[in-house]
Amino acid sequence: MSLDEQWHMVRDNHLVLMARGVASPRIPESSNFWLLSMRLWTPEGEMVEEQAFRKGLADQELIHALDRRIFQEFFRIWAHKVAARGISVTLPLSVAGLTGPVLINEILDGLKLSAMPARLLHLVFNASSLAQSGVQERLDQLRHAGCKIIISQVGQDLDLFEQMKAGVADYVMLDPELIINVHTSLMDEMMVTIVQGHAQRLGMKTIAGPTNQALMMDTLSGIGVDLIYGDSIAANQPLDVVLNTSYFAIN
Length: 251
What we know:
The chain is α/β, with parallel strands linked by helices.
């Protein structure tokens, strides 16, 4: 796909926000919050998942524009509905978005204008972003405003925990590659156990997934992982379906 086509998709094409529940493996029926991702459509009308689309992007301005489009769409259509339901949701932040000139201010302004409590907005970013200049200062801004911070893709580089201090984030999300065979691989189980220990030491909760069978859920629960996601918890479905068909406790 050409750069012009990518820009057209980001700026103009239809997108849908999808939601997947995150719950304790010990109480899988009750979602603590919802992971949001997007689906875009190509000029030919084919659907593309966010993760696959992002992998094909190299232009930092385009990645920044994609982050802005997602947040603009969220605050324009969904923030007041999410606030009315009192549920917590996550949205992705790229390095380009974190270090870009406008996105963080747009998020903070969006929270004020939508009257959505900042505690309901969880922001997830890749662990490799922490090494980038200016990232920690932007994260501190968001945490100070009341947002929750999730560091994702954690587990392959354990040196990360030597650089982190308590209070940097609220959650760590394990690399899915460590979870796929955690119920059959002692090495992966050991790595998840090590990450769990580091997270507890730093006062952070752990998130693991995707899980698609009971044995994976039992293994993660036995390790002490706090939260899991995947088909064994809830299928990925449009956010409007979740808001219109689910029952929520008061948050």
